[in-house]
Amino acid sequence: EAQLVESGGGLVQAGGSLRLSCVASGFDFDDYAIGWFRQAPGKERGERGGVSCIRTSDGTTYYADSVKGRFTISRDNAKNTVYLEMNSLKPEDTAVYYCHTESFWGQGTQVTVSS
Questions:
Q1: Taking 90 as the threshold, does the pLDDT of residue 1 lie above it?
Q2: How many CB atoms lie within 10 A of CB 12?
Q3: Cα-to-chain-centroid distance, residue 6
Q4: Rounded Cα distance, 93 and 103, in Å
Q5: What does the DSSP 8-state code read for residue 46?
Q6: Pick from 37, 38, 36, 82: nearest CA to 57
Q7: Are the C-beta atoms of 67 and 53 separated by less than 8 Å?
């Protein structure tokens, strides 16, 4: 059974940085697009917004306009892990961040950015 486990969230001041990790198991990691989504406070599950995505086969990436230039997605195929390096964090980045591929979601990791 496919499983995604996120970690690395926390509380940080505006302008700070965090690195999220998503460890995948139960499927062929080398042949998927894996993305990071976030659910802001007060939003429903269906309102999760896409943040960034990477194709594990060739490293092709996608970024939402709101995070371009601040966030960097990467992957380590040997570790079945996708990372999200988040710099210059803003209070509006506060959300639960989820890793997602196909129909599978992780449990999420909370990111809180204080002003």
A1: no
A2: 17
A3: 8
A4: 24
A5: G
A6: 82
A7: no
Tell me the β-bridge partners of 21.
Answer: 7, 83
The torsion of the CA quartet 28, 101, 19, 96, rounded to 10 degrees, works out to: -150
End-to-end CA gap in the chain: 40
Confidence (pLDDT) at 31: 86
Residue 43 has pLDDT above 90, yes or no: yes
For residues 27-54, one letter each, b for 16 or more C-beta atoms within 10 angstroms of the residue's C-beta and e for the rest, the string is bebeebebbbbbbeeeeeeeebeebbbb
Instruction: Work out the average pLDDT over 67-85.
Output: 97
* CB hemisphere CA count around 114 (13 angstroms): 4
Among candidate residues 91, 84, 78, 94, the one with its CA nearest the CA of residue 41: 94
Q: What phi, psi does 33 have (nearest 5°)? A: -100, 125
- Please give the C-alpha separations between residue 23 and each of 4, 41, 76, in angstroms, as whole numbers: 6, 25, 10
